[in-house]
Amino acid sequence: MTIDLRDPRQLTRVLARGRLIMGLTAVVLPRLGGSLLGVTPRSGPARFYVRAAGIRDALIGLGMEMSVREGRYPQGWVGIAGVADAGDALAALVTRGLTTRGRMLSLFATGSAAVHLQLARQLDELDTAEGGLGGAPPDMSPI
Fold first, then answer.
1. How far apart are CA 55 and CA 58, in angstroms?
2. What's CA 6's distance to the chain center, in Å?
């Protein structure tokens, strides 16, 4: 199977699966997930926050995947992913004591937010062109 990353729907599915895998890793293995995120969750509360972020990302990834597969407004889920990543970047910007790796990951979150928000826009344009939610209103003539 060939994946065409120029196709917004296929790119959405790739990003969704990556987000789902990263999220589940953080939930099941918070120390590994935390190290991927640039933090070392040694305490129970730190592991809780890594798991909470993992659940959020896994659910967003699942929503992205399902919405593309079912053709149900994927631009909304992709936009949510972009806003969540922008929030992560902002949180990293205002948090003192982050490691260099944590700071670098805030740049990754900023880039990911930009990619997801642009992809949401492309999906919306595609939906409008195909007469979906953003297209012409449905025919309301009586049966």
1. 5
2. 18
Using one digit for the tens of pLDDT, what is the confidence trace for 72-90? Answer: 999 999 999 999 999 999 9
pTM of the model: 0.84
Lookup: tokens for 101: 């790796």
pLDDT along the chain (143 residues), means of 10: 85 96 93 75 84 96 96 94 96 87 88 97 92 51 46
Contact of 45 with 51, CB cutoff 8 Å: no
| Number of residues assigned to the chain | 143
Give the other-Cβ count within 10 Å of 27's Cβ. 18
Q: 143 by DSSP, 3-state: which?
A: coil
Q: What is the DSSP string of 97-126?
A: T--HHHHHHHHHHHHHHHHHHHHHHHHHHH
